């Protein structure tokens, strides 16, 4: 089959090996967030990306000249098109360069999976042998373009001169920034992908593939999004894509083969998304609702949600467990709902709205990660104006409706310094932390920040907070009292939790397992000037909440003192040569700005290892005085 391609290309082989050069590459971002465009040789020279290319080289049997013409050059054009754009806004490969990493990973998976298929199906063995290389090329080309439409449909790229850049122009001529488009049409992904294929794949390759009618037809159908007509070619690339996505989000790809092509998990997620969009009421401020969206996740009424999921799936002709316990167990096993500490799907929670609405009894709820329901962070609703309290075993929580919330972040004052957190963290997520996967060894990772600020939320200035501190102290202390005798007893039974070492261990574990958000909306951790910024007192409240332990203002103060005793934080030097423990950060928003207060940790390697940290571009450390 390659003899035909040789005639079309009119090239001969000179070498028989594929050389790779392993050199690290770093994204070039200036202080204003402009990303410098890079040529393919720079984009592809990292160790990880060279490994992907080497895997592809090992799966095809050809000379280096042919490999360069068929695959290397299209991949280079692909790299220059996608540059350092992410593959998704808040899901898999959402880091700088994520689209390129994902694309190359899918290529390598597809090339490997292709070896397990005999193509074309039902053809004579000699015909299958003759067409083998052409079908391999068709699969690799489909893998190359399967997601590239996103960089036009989902993302708007702006050049430094203010003009918009489109992928079909090739390498951006100037530094660029990007943002995700709200309300985008996902069905356009394959349409634009098939269009961009003409810029990536050489005409000689199309001429070659056109001589295999079934092969070129399958490729065209797959590129256009008609997977039902593309047959095995589309199936192979879909499996490769699933493997890449599963690895990126920390899943087990060996379990993918146990599920149908259209998995029950996907059907459940589609049902939940449909119900949230058309049926379920959430965050009702003054009365009953079907669910509540908080900083901890999305909480849905268990029975009514299960009943509506069942009704929706049955309407679609999809088999579903007839009783709720089995359905809950299925959702739990598929990681659609989060498990309780007792490894059950049902959470017993109390609801208390700021409006005063507070049901006397606990609800049975399902807890779901918001990224499962809303892939686009801009589609997520505002947080519930109130609290969802998880009931502990044998915990009498009758007092919840007659007392104030156990802790109020806005009124909590730190006795360690005459400052307090002046605003919730309102940083919107453009690019999230880089996911780590098992197969990437010790390769370079990017933990990046970015995003806008919700300017509709006002923040008091630090000066006003300092002036009002004393007047607020008495009312704040009242709001922090633990009314329940049982809660008071619980609060005294935490000798280890006030340990600074225990807090640091919790912080490190949360960062390494991605349970603690960084540089995203409502996160308490940010990267500022290469340092780790801990928003106070929010991060300390999160620590106690994660342990399901009641706490008082004094507990927070003691924990802050214990943390300070470890001397991990960097002090802020005042003009009078004195110093204080807290730093301030200004948060730049589209309409308004606010400030945050917290600790600054210089030794980030303890928490992130060798990861390369990139600052959240919307936070600016306030440094009037040169510090150590």
UniProtKB/TrEMBL annotation:
Bias (Basic and acidic residues) ranges: 471-489
Domain called DEP: residue spans: 476-565
Membrane-spanning ranges: none
Cited Pfam families: TraI_2 (PF07514), TraI_2_C (PF07515)
Domain of life: Bacteria
GO terms, biological process: intracellular signal transduction
Region (Disordered): 464-491
Protein name: DEP domain-containing protein
Taxonomy of the source species: Bacteria, Pseudomonadati, Pseudomonadota, Gammaproteobacteria, Pasteurellales
């Amino acid at each position: 089959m390659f003899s035909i391609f040789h005639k079309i290309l009119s090239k001969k082989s000179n070498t028989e090996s594929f050389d790779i050069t392993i050199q690290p590459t770093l994204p070039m971002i200036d202080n204003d967030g402009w990303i410098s465009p890079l040529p393919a040789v720079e984009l592809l020279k990292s160790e990880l990306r060279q490994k992907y290319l080497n895997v592809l080289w090992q799966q095809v049997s050809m000379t280096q000249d042919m490999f360069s013409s068929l695959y290397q050059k299209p991949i280079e054009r692909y790299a220059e098109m996608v540059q350092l754009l992410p593959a998704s806004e808040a899901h898999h490969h959402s880091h700088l360069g994520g689209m390129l990493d994902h694309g190359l990973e899918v290529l390598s998976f597809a090339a490997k999976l292709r070896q397990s298929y005999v193509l074309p199906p039902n053809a004579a063995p000699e015909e299958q042998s003759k067409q083998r290389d052409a079908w391999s090329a068709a699969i690799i080309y489909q893998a190359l373009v399967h997601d590239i439409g996103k960089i036009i449909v989902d993302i708007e790229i702006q050049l430094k001169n203010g003009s918009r850049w489109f992928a079909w122009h090739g390498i951006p001529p100037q530094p660029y920034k990007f943002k995700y488009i709200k309300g985008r049409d996902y069905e356009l992904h394959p349409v634009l992908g098939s269009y961009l294929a003409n810029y990536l794949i050489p005409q000689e390759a199309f001429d070659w593939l056109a001589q295999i009618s079934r092969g070129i037809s399958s490729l065209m159908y797959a590129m256009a999004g008609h997977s039902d007509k593309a047959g095995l070619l589309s199936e192979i690339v879909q499996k490769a894509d699933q493997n890449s996505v599963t690895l990126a989000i920390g899943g087990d790809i060996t379990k993918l083969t146990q599920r149908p092509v259209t998995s029950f998990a996907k059907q459940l997620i589609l049902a939940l998304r449909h119900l949230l969009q058309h049926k379920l009421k959430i965050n009702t401020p003054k009365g009953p609702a079907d669910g509540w969206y908080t900083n901890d996740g999305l909480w849905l009424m268990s029975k009514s949600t299960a009943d509506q999921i069942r009704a929706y799936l049955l309407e679609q002709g999809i088999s579903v467990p007839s009783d709720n316990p089995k359905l809950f167990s299925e959702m739990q096993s598929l990681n659609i709902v989060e498990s309780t500490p007792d490894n059950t799907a049902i959470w017993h929670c109390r609801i208390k709205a700021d409006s005063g609405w507070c049901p006397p009894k606990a609800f049975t709820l399902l807890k779901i990660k918001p990224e499962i329901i809303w892939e686009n962070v801009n589609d997520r609703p505002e947080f519930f104006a109130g609290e969802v309290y998880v009931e502990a075993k044998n915990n009498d929580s009758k007092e919840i409706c007659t007392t104030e919330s156990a802790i109020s972040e806005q009124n909590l004052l730190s006795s360690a310094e005459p400052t307090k957190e002046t605003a919730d963290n309102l940083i919107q997520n453009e690019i999230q932390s880089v996911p780590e996967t098992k197969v990437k060894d010790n390769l370079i990772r990017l933990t990046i920040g970015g995003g806008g600020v919700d300017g509709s939320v006002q923040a008091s200035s630090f000066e006003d907070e300092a002036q009002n501190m004393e007047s607020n102290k008495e009312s704040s202390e009242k709001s922090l009292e633990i009314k329940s005798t049982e809660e008071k007893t619980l609060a005294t039974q935490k000798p280890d939790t006030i340990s600074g070492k225990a807090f640091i261990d919790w912080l490190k574990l949360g960062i390494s397992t991605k349970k603690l958000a960084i540089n995203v909306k409502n996160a308490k951790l940010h990267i500022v000037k290469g340092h780790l910024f801990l928003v106070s007192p929010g991060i300390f409240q999160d620590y106690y909440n994660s342990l399901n332990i009641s706490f008082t203002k004094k507990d927070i103060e003691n924990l802050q003192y214990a943390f300070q005793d470890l001397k991990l934080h960097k002090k802020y030097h005042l003009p009078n040569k004195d110093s204080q423990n807290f730093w301030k950060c200004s948060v730049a928003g589209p309409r308004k700005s606010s400030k945050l207060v917290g600790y600054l940790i210089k030794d980030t390697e303890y928490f992130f290892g060798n990861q390369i940290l990139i600052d959240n571009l919307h936070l600016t450390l306030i440094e009037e005085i040169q510090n150590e």
